[in-house]
Design a protein that fits this description.
The complex is a heterodimer.
Chain A: E1 6-12, E2 17-21, H1 26-32, E3 51-54, E4 57-59, E5 64-66, H2 84-88, E6 91-93, E7 103-106, E8 133-139, H3 151-163, E9 169-170, H4 172-182, E10 189-195, E11 199-205, E12 212-218, E13 222-229, E14 235-242, H5 252-261, H6 265-286, H7 298-302, H8 308-317, E15 328-335, H9 337-343, E16 364-367, H10 368-371, E17 380-383, H11 393-402, E18 411-416, E19 420-425, E20 430-435, E21 456-462, E22 469-473, H12 485-488, E23 492-493, H13 495-507, E24 526-528, E25 535-540, E26 551-554, H14 555-579, E27 586-591, H15 599-604, E28 616-620, H16 622-632, H17 635-646, E29 648-649, H18 658-665, H19 684-687
Parallel strand pairs in A: 1-7, 9-11, 12-15, 15-17, 18-27, 20-29, 21-23, 27-28
Antiparallel strand pairs in A: 1-2, 3-6, 3-7, 4-5, 8-10, 10-11, 12-13, 13-14, 16-17, 18-19, 19-20, 21-22, 24-25, 25-26
Chain B: H1 4-19, H2 23-35, H3 40-60, H4 66-83, H5 89-92, E1 99-104, H6 112-123, E2 127-130, H7 137-147, E3 151-155, H8 159-175, E4 180-184, H9 190-195, E5 200-202, H10 205-221
Parallel strand pairs in B: 1-2, 1-3, 3-4, 4-5
The chains are: A alpha/beta, B alpha/beta.
């Protein structure tokens, strides 16, 4: 084998990719590409922490064929950590498997060294208490010869008398448990969980007040879950994971394509998601038990980057509820239309073809067991309705959490994700739209883009006088200028950093408004890449990084960001034109990193038309909040069905001057539109450049 | 009849006008070409098309991006609209030209890339049959047979619609194996183009521009 030859490697779920020399181990390759795989033993093949999985097959999205045969032969040391079944599934140790040809590698959560920072945290929103599942406490008189009525009818009578509940059904599995639970300790007292005033789904002996539900937001890239106490509405825990379907492609289109190209694709993707959701459920429940002995090594190793102390403190304050997934009696799910369809194994093919009709609009109630979800056996899952092919239940979630249809003021809501979704309007009229932003704004597909994990640049400042860069990374509070270079341990740039980069490069005059580098550069950070002659700008020098190379933003990266932001801006503008307005009362930015968005930067880079900075609000993961609202208030489910059918969906790409609008919106902040509100934020000579 | 000096001056104005996306300058120069009796075909090929060559080069270097490209295209069309009616048949005579059927495939409504490619063919002197966007698969086959075009260029922006390209390639090749089929669009890779049995491939709008520019360059060399 020629060691000078290179092979293409893609790491999932981070999406980091590049070419590496053949003959390197997967772990070595991961380091070069800025992916962190655990390595407690220092690659001595003894700790087994670096398990990875090699995916099989041709992946259209990346244009590569990956195979187990593309790695060096199996080694004896691996047997200790990888069983036969796992071996067949493609598992290897990163320190053993050497790269011999193109590979698509999945790094399981437990093998990832830097844990993702959860930005899908729950927010305080006003929710009226009226969950779909409610519990009722009943005491019944034990049967006698005079009154030998059956157990079920006995409690139904009581439920009717006490609470006015009529004509209740009972789930078969709940019925099986009824006789013994009713007679538990010979108490004849029961707590009954009733779903939508229709069906008994759980019976517990005695009086039980607290009961639990889970709201899930299935994002294309990230999945978030909120474990809630349905009695008190308290959010007990927020858990998240990467979408396990990422290996089939980063965006919804490539997932749909995977289904079209592979006979079993839809079932496989759905099964992966169900398995992921079950893991997430288990994870949320596990956190309600007292902490087990500390996991060996892992915590010590990360101690220097992650402020674990604070987390540990919170951990202790949590009351130990000792929940298990069986205690979860209700679940709501939001997700874009493609995620919705794939999860439910509804053919998503037609969502991917104009005019993009979904299989179903209205919300669905499905028994959790029919989906294979391990919540309570008798419980239901409520899946929120879809608006259109490209505006799904996740956007409905945003709507029912933000309720623009109840306000006089005109709101523009921008949900930034792999697919950007826009809503505009007020109580009189609401329109929605979607635009293909691509994963650039989330950090994927850029030379040094990465997810929000320790070492990711999240804030940047550039001095207009010197073009010197100061920045902050996740996991370290001190900015670079107050740190020693080696303390930064920079790895790449994440979503919020990417918004900052474009705004700062423009504001400081490093970039012209066209997105081209200014010919007048003031520092040595600007250079032409020796390999491909492309212009690039150094954000972090190699000695500040943990990957041993300069972290740069290339002209091509900037073009990617321009495409994404141009799509959003153009979408906003065309929608405003459709409504016949030239300004809005409020701009709300939602999305996985919604909470991290610096509103000034968002305005400077031209994510949306000019407006007063004060009117821009970050609303975080509003889709997840909507799922939570629907979990805690059944009226929200009715509202969701109504709003999904009363928002007018507009396909922007067929607007007659879409091309022109899109093109003009790619400039920073815009080719022609005026930005009077940037007057004090951007130097005049920059703002008014030709 | 104008002088050679004047000819060079006008060609330069056309070329620079395209590169700098100065529509007025292009319009003025194109009108002058017609009024002063210069050869319109010469003006298109050595003025406008030469300008687009520079534009393609700038795009390749990432100095120009889609907005600039589209603005250059606008300037180019201003010139083309004025000059085209004055191109004489003798000029075209034995020069290479051909017909192209072009369109964005069924299910896909994105057509910026396709419009850029269409322009390239226009400039190169091809007769372009533009089917627009969201074009039913059979329509490509019908149009090719109707016009007897040598080239069919298919565009797709989404991976889902890209799959339809395979069918079109099969359908056309079945009816007429000698047609050259080009594929383009964001999700299309060299591998997929080969897999689908296409003859040509363009990586993206930018790359397609390069391909088209090369084609124009070749055409110009063959004059």
């Amino acid at each position: 084998m020629n060691q000078d030859e290179k092979a293409r490697i893609i790491f999932q779920p981070s999406g980091r990719r590049g070419q590496v020399h053949k003959g390197l181990t997967v772990t070595e390759a991961s380091r070069q590409l800025g992916v962190d795989i655990e390595s407690l033993c220092g690659e001595k093949k003894v700790c087994g922490k670096c398990k990875i999985r090699i995916e099989e097959g041709f992946f259209e999205k990346f244009g590569i064929t990956s195979s187990k045969d593309h790695a060096s032969p199996w080694q004896k040391e691996e047997e200790k950590f990888i069983n036969e079944e796992q071996r067949a599934a493609g598992y290897r140790l990163g320190c053993c498997a050497k790269v011999e040809a193109d590979l698509l590698i999945f790094v399981p959560e437990e093998s990832r060294a830097g844990k993702q920072v959860v930005s899908k945290a729950a927010r305080d929103i006003q929710i009226q208490w009226n969950p779909a599942v409610k519990v009722y406490y009943v005491e019944v008189v034990p049967p006698t010869f005079e009154n030998p009525l059956g157990d079920l009818e006995r409690i139904l009578d009581e439920l009717n008398r006490e609470y006015g509940l009529k004509d209740l059904d009972i789930d078969y599995f709940a019925l099986q448990k009824l006789p013994m639970r009713l007679r538990d300790n010979n108490r004849w007292k029961l707590t009954v969980a009733v779903w939508n005033d229709k069906e008994i789904i759980r019976v517990l002996p005695g009086k039980v007040e607290a009961y639990y539900g889970m709201a899930i937001d299935v994002g294309t890239t990230t999945v978030a879950g909120y474990l809630c106490n349905l009695a008190t509405m308290e959010v007990i825990d927020t858990v998240s994971m990467m979408n396990p379907q990422c290996k089939y492609g980063e965006d919804v289109m490539s997932r749909i394509t995977y289904h079209m190209m592979h006979e079993d694709g839809l079932r496989k993707m759905s099964a992966d998601m169900i398995e992921g959701l079950n893991t997430l459920l288990a994870k949320a429940c596990e956190a309600t038990h007292p902490p087990k002995e500390k996991k060996r090594g892992k915590d010590e190793q990360e101690a220097d980057i992650v402020p674990e102390a604070a987390e540990a403190l919170e951990e202790e304050e949590k009351t130990c509820l000792h929940l298990n997934p069986n205690d979860i009696v209700d679940m709501t799910i939001v997700g874009n239309t493609a995620m919705h369809h794939i999860l439910l194994q509804l053919n998503p093919e037609f969502v991917g073809l104009a005019p993009f009709p979904p299989v179903i609009h209205k919300g669905l109630d499905i028994k959790a067991r029919d989906l294979g979800l391990h919540t309570n056996q008798s419980s239901y899952v409520h899946v929120l309705p879809n608006e259109a092919g490209f505006v799904g239940a996740d956007n409905v979630g945003v709507l029912i959490s933000e309720e623009p249809y109840k306000k006089d003021e005109i709101q523009l809501i921008i949900d930034i994700g792999t697919n950007g979704e826009l809503v505009l309007g007020n109580k009189d009229k609401l329109i929605s739209s979607s635009c293909a932003t691509g994963p650039a704004l989330e950090g994927a597909q850029l030379s040094y883009g990465m997810r929000a994990a320790p070492g990711a640049i999240e804030r940047i400042k550039i001095d207009p006088e010197t073009h010197e860069v100061d920045y902050k990374v996740i996991g370290r509070d001190a900015w670079k200028q107050y740190s020693k270079p080696e303390e930064m341990k920079t790895k790449g740039i994440c979503g919020s950093g990417i918004l900052d980069v474009l705004a700062e490069l423009y504001r400081s005059g490093v970039l012209l408004k066209s997105g081209k580098f200014n010919p007048e550069q003031k520092s040595s950070r600007y250079r032409k890449n020796a390999n491909n002659d492309q212009p690039e700008f150094v954000i972090a020098w190699a000695n500040e990084t943990s990957i041993g190379q300069d972290v740069v933003i290339t002209q091509k990266d900037i073009r990617q960001i321009q495409l994404a932001k141009g799509a959003l801006y153009c979408g906003c503008k065309l929608m405003m034109r459709r409504m016949g307005i030239d300004k809005v009362d409020k701009v709300k930015i939602a999305g996985a990193f919604g909470t991290h968005v610096d509103r000034e930067k968002a305005l400077i880079m031209g994510l949306f038309p000019d407006c007063d900075v004060e009117k821009i609000i970050s609303v975080g993961n509003a889709a997840g909040d909507g799922a939570r609202a629907a979990l805690l208030n059944r009226e929200k489910r009715v509202e969701a069905n109504w709003v999904a059918r009363n928002v007018e969906y507009i396909e922007l790409t067929v607007e007659k001057d879409f091309e022109k609008q899109f093109m003009q919106a790619m400039h920073i902040p815009h080719m022609k539109d005026k930005f009077p509100h940037l007057k004090d934020l951007v130097p005049e000579e920059v703002l008014n450049q030709k | 009849m104008g002088t050679e000096e004047r000819r060079q001056e006008l060609l330069k104005a056309l070329k620079e006008g395209v590169v700098e996306y100065e529509e007025d300058q292009v319009e003025e120069a194109a009108k002058a070409v017609v009024e002063e009796g210069f050869n319109a075909y010469d003006a298109v090929m050595n003025g406008l098309a030469a300008g687009m060559e520079v534009v393609g080069d700038l795009y390749d270097k990432q100095e120009y991006f889609v907005p600039e490209l589209l603005m250059c295209a606008d300037a180019l069309y201003v010139g083309l609209d004025i000059l085209k009616p004055h191109i004489s048949l003798e000029d075209l005579g034995d020069k290479p030209k051909g017909q192209v059927v072009i369109g964005t495939i069924q299910g896909d409504v994105h057509d910026i890339g396709k419009n850029i490619i269409k322009m390239m063919f226009d400039v190169a002197g091809f007769t372009v049959h533009d089917l627009g966007r969201d074009v039913p698969l059979e329509k490509f086959v019908e149009e090719q047979l109707r016009t007897d075009s040598e080239i069919v260029a298919l565009s797709a922006m989404m991976t889902t619609t890209m799959m339809g390209m395979k069918k079109v390639v099969e359908m056309i090749k079945e009816k007429n194996p000698n047609v050259a089929i080009m594929l383009g669009g964001a999700p299309v890779t060299k591998e997929t183009a080969d897999l689908f049995g296409a003859d040509g491939y363009a990586e993206s709008a930018g790359n397609a521009v390069q391909e088209a520019i090369k084609m124009i360059t070749r055409l110009r060399e063959m004059q």
